[in-house]
Amino acid sequence: MFAPSLGIDETCTLFKIEMRSEITMNQHYQNLVQKLEEITHLNGVMSTLGWDQEVMMPAGASDARAKQIATLAGVIHERMTDPALGECLHELKEKDFAALGEMERCNIREALYSYELETKVSKRLVQELAELGSRGHSVWVTARQENKFADFAPVLKRFLQLKTEWAQCVSPDLEPYDANIDLFERGTTMNVITPIFERLKQELIPLIAAIQSHPVQPDTSFLQGRFALDKQEVLARKISQDMGFNIEQGRIDVSVHPFCGGSHPTDVRITTRYKDSNFVESLYSVIHETGHALYEQGRPHELGDLPATESLTMGIHESQSLFWERMIAQSKPFCAHYFETIRAAFPENLQSATVDSFYRAINTCKPDFIRVEADEVTYPLHVILRYEIEKGLFDGSMNVDDLPEIWNELMQKYLGIKPPTDTLGVLQDSHWSGGAFGYFPSYTLGAMYACQFYNTLLREQPGTGQNIATGNFVPIKNWLNEKIHRQGKLYTPQQLVERVTGEPLNPDYFVEYLKNKYSEIYRLA
Amino acid sequence: MFAPSLGIDETCTLFKIEMRSEITMNQHYQNLVQKLEEITHLNGVMSTLGWDQEVMMPAGASDARAKQIATLAGVIHERMTDPALGECLHELKEKDFAALGEMERCNIREALYSYELETKVSKRLVQELAELGSRGHSVWVTARQENKFADFAPVLKRFLQLKTEWAQCVSPDLEPYDANIDLFERGTTMNVITPIFERLKQELIPLIAAIQSHPVQPDTSFLQGRFALDKQEVLARKISQDMGFNIEQGRIDVSVHPFCGGSHPTDVRITTRYKDSNFVESLYSVIHETGHALYEQGRPHELGDLPATESLTMGIHESQSLFWERMIAQSKPFCAHYFETIRAAFPENLQSATVDSFYRAINTCKPDFIRVEADEVTYPLHVILRYEIEKGLFDGSMNVDDLPEIWNELMQKYLGIKPPTDTLGVLQDSHWSGGAFGYFPSYTLGAMYACQFYNTLLREQPGTGQNIATGNFVPIKNWLNEKIHRQGKLYTPQQLVERVTGEPLNPDYFVEYLKNKYSEIYRLA
After folding, report:
1. Which of A61, A297, B252, B398 could be disulfide-bonded to B267 (CB atoms 3.0-4.6 Å)?
2. Beta carbons of A68 and B38 less than 8 Å apart
3. Of A38, A72, A266, the CB nearest to B61
4. Does B318 share its domain with B448?
């Protein structure tokens, strides 16, 4: 798909008469490549600092690290807003853009997008957002601990003002909330999301109600107990590497919150946490992060440390982690393949379990208050609730002060439960404390992409179930590598989905998948 | 000793008539502080990358990391050679320098020194040195593996030319070799070193010969065997923290070569390696690195991330590691205090050992080929040999091509042994492959400083032996903190030694220490 950028040199050789201008063009482009690669390298350094802070840094170093990060962020900002970079980009964009190859054009387009994002906003607004983000986080931590939404409300109000102002600077043609969504899922707007989310509500609310009221509930008792941490770690590492995680170009460590980080496609670092009371959580979080990691390791970095080789959007990234976590690892053939290995790790706990009881136990559906602990059926409703609130805040139909009440009403309406405190309700997520509005939809967009991709894979490789059942993940990984990872930023998410699956995002696959799977697990009519 | 820099503001208040110029001065100085702190933060980031590379980074990431490091090095170089920094420094240096406090003057002096070091050398020479250093290292690795000095000789010849040219740029008033030494041990020249090293040769060569020919040799058999790595690690961590290593602001990890790194005095990271065949090596390397770490953790960083708060020189740093390794941990009271703890960790191996036999076993003296494995008596001769060769190369009295022969002759003359190969001889150290001439003397300067400092401590705190014997290291650490660590770069090494001990560097303490200690261990007449 990608090809090394030889086009220009060949043109020079073939059409000598045009050589002078071609060389100039090439020099401009080489100049751009150098600037962009330096920015990528410095971002890689920043990622290493972030990873180190979460995984390695001694607690006493936090002040010094904050200063190091602030200084490096300043250096990166200088480079990204360097007027010489802007000139170079405009020069390339305005002259002979069409003569360049697909990848060169993509690098210019993406770099220009970032440049404008960084330069369109006034320094005053950038600083105010950064300060509010830093202060907002600690206000939120305390408010959440003390269950005091009123303390957090002023931060939220101010963020709404600033993020509206920000949206008008960067994307004056978009609705402010769409401009915020655009940051996480480029090109996806409320026009697309709202009808899809309405459809999900329509299908999932009755499905969840049916599951809840049904007398047959899976036995999960054998997942309780004590599970030795060293066994959990061996198991997680084995499965991650079976999936194709390249440990020669990555690491697996422990941190408070699992994440996928690292400095480069050859240095991809995932983390998890091990609890001795719950091995499923850590195992599936390693599988989830491995999905992210395979995307990063699969990027076409041999084409340079350039924007075109980067991962596409939050939603597409999440589609890769959820593809492995849900489509593959929560499937029956996966359980069949690993059940004896897992039982051998915890023989006493899983003594009387079977492949089937294990499959049903890890696929229970139960409404609960906390999004990050939700199962795949209830998760979308957590997201939709947040989406509707963000939409309402930006269009003025909701007020910040009413959020606790709105939140609880929607929880009751969608999941049939009401959080006893705001800590377990409107205050649970960190996103808003940093001003990250528009992020939440990408979780459910990712889930739907994953399902649609999986459906295409099944069509193109009908032996996939058998491959999973025999632990042969190579064809699956190769397919994702080729179809998604190696495409970098060449297409928009909408184009990519259509190229891979032959149609735009279609929630039917997700709805059908959930309905079929859970009807069978819960023996629904 | 240090005081927060309030002097200027007070002056402003007291002498209103001078206020305008004082404020300007203060603004200049604040401007400088900001620039210097940013450089310090970026250097801290660079150190984190270095640590990560040795301890954490997956092997496959080395190319990407090299590019990240090169880009960051470029950013730091830009900042260090920023003409605005130079103007600011000259402004401060030329106007009212005397009106500033001791610490401010030190920051300006040190920053100017670094600025001139970076800007006096042409870009061409900087690049050629960097390229030769990078290429030289891999040439050396292969030459050493294949025992082919002739392959390495051209690199060494070119480095000599370049480092002579470099010396003429940065310190035209110094002999070229002195300019190279100055980089590692500021202010110390051949005039000082040569007579001291002559004295050491005169004393140590006969001492080593006497030890070698003496019939009484310590029993070291109980140090051979298998020592569980987990026990070694627990022991090393305990002793490091007993010494005062603050693990809340530091880490202990494993790497191929032990080192002390980290990004800040609140983030000091030491490493070691554990071999199951030898616990003494890893334990004493942790103690050695802890000595370095206590220096870093003891720096007066509350005064800002500024040059005046940095460690002084290589020699003074080495004095701190050797102070703890040799003066404290190779002493009889230290062995007495820890012997039962050590024996409890390895009961089978140390069954029949005693405090005395343990003390004698860890203090054996035996000439061998490799510097890094040498004991404290033979080590100085390894250093002197290298010093004499470097001196001879720079003054033209020696030729690179003759080095293998010269090396082996001097080994025979000083230690009575001849390396069977150049791999075990002239090719063993990496220093010259990177052009680091003038580094070696600091090892033995450090050893002599350590001994002289210890002698002063004994005079000022006569209960030190008793403190060691009871594991009370607090008064020792506090003394080093106050006398050395918190002095930062306020004085030259020569001034510091004189301030702490009341006299200039005096090799007598070192010579007497070795003669007394080893006469007793080897029962010499």
Report:
1. A61
2. no
3. A266
4. yes
